[in-house]
Design goal:
single chain, 362 residues, alpha/beta, Rossmann fold, 6-phosphogluconate dehydrogenase C-terminal fold, Alpha-Beta Plaits, 3 domains, seven-stranded mixed sheet, 11 strands, 17% strand, globular, Prephenate dehydrogenase, prephenate dehydrogenase (NAD+) activity
Length: 362
């Protein structure tokens, strides 16, 4: 691939453009908002100049509702040898394209499973897709050259290609992406009118659950509007569990011992099923989730503190597998939680204490 055209210079389009430009591909940029193109170009994502002829690959980074129109328009103008979209929904746009008589041999629907709570070109990074799944949904009609161009794009972005059926993809993202967004927003909405004294007690758990609730509502309305059925199916199943959990909690308040026992069993059931489901979430490098030991270290909010911890861990010969930071409310301090392979915690604890770090007992 020598040339590419990115249509839509938001977070995903600009990130793909930055990755391609960094690897020597000449990237041309288009967007209905000229200021987005100027920003992306200033970041080094490519040029606002129109290509002199058809490019190798056109990447359409537009909302799902506009994919069919954008692909059809680009094909009509002969802008590229191959066309892909990077929308988060795949089945509906393909059916629209087929109904419009689009050339499906030169088109391939894709979806990089990566993003951020922020949107727009200023949120883009060249490494956004590194190590992340990038779904490709070819059909028997897909031209081999187009599939190869898409695979080259995925490789240049250092993502991991995953082949899926379009409708199976939509059911999967309803479960692992779209429903979590709504549930995060539902929990965060409880905080909107909560008493200030309650909000001040927020810890890492509520921060984890509500992180993606900061996402752009307009963008998510477009995404959910393109995949409403599968998301509603998952939410209906969650609603069934919620109703059962509410009944179990009410039973725990009962004076009847038998009802309380049933309530305990109901709560245990949902918690155990949660444990089982969580254990299936892929861990490091896509492998089965590892069971890590944790060392919690008190740190002050000063530049260089994390670097010192990592350097001291490296000097002790311990690899940090994951890290989380729990900030202290109203203080310039917090705890950094270091996740380690089993057996490494005593070694690191001793080494850090020797270097003056305060370790929180687990």
């Amino acid at each position: 691939m020598r040339t590419a055209l990115v249509i839509g210079t938001g977070l995903i389009g600009t990130s793909a453009a930055l990755a391609l430009a960094a690897r020597g591909v000449r990237v041309h940029l288009r967007d209905h908002a000229p200021e987005h193109v100027r920003t992306a170009a200033a970041l080094g994502a490519g040029t606002a100049d129109e290509p002199e002829g058809p490019v190798d690959l056109a990447i359409l980074a537009v909302p799902p509702a506009h994919i069919a129109e954008a692909v059809t328009g680009a094909q009509r103008l002969g802008l590229a040898r191959g066309y892909i979209d990077v929308g988060s929904v795949k089945g509906g746009p393909r059916r629209e394209l087929r109904a419009q008589g689009c050339d499906l041999s030169s088109y391939l629907g894709t979806h990089p499973m990566s993003g951020r709570e922020k949107s727009g070109p200023l949120a883009a990074t060249a490494d956004l897709f590194e190590g992340r799944p990038w779904v490709l949904t070819p059909t028997p009609e897909t031209d081999t050259e187009v599939l190869n161009l898409a695979l080259e794009l995925v490789a240049l972005c250092r993502a991991v290609p995953v082949m899926m059926d379009a409708d199976a993809h939509d059911r999967a993202v309803a479960l692992v992406s779209h429903t979590p967004q709504l549930l995060s927003s539902l929990v965060a909405a409880r905080l909107e009118t909560a008493d200030e004294t309650a909000v001040r007690l927020c810890g890492q758990g509520i921060r984890d659950v509500t992180r993606i609730a900061a996402s752009d509502p307009g963008m998510w309305v477009e995404i959910l509007s393109a995949n409403p059925g599968p998301v509603a199916d998952v939410l209906a199943a969650v609603a069934t569990d919620l109703e059962a959990t509410v009944r179990a909690l009410r039973a725990l308040d009962s004076a009847d011992e038998e009802k309380r026992g049933g309530g305990v069993l109901g709560i245990e059931d949902v918690l155990h099923r949660g444990n089982s489901g969580r254990s299936r979430v892929p861990g490091k490098h896509g492998q089965a989730p590892a069971v890590y030991e944790m060392v919690a270290v008190l740190i002050s909010d000063r530049p260089g503190e994390l670097a010192r911890i990592f350097a001291d861990a490296g000097a002790a010969g311990v690899n940090i597998e994951d890290v989380r930071i729990e900030h202290a409310t109203g203080q310039q301090a917090g705890h950094v939680q270091l996740m380690l392979e089993p057996g490494a915690a005593p070694v690191l604890t001793a080494a850090l204490r020797e270097r003056g770090w305060a370790i929180r007992a687990q």
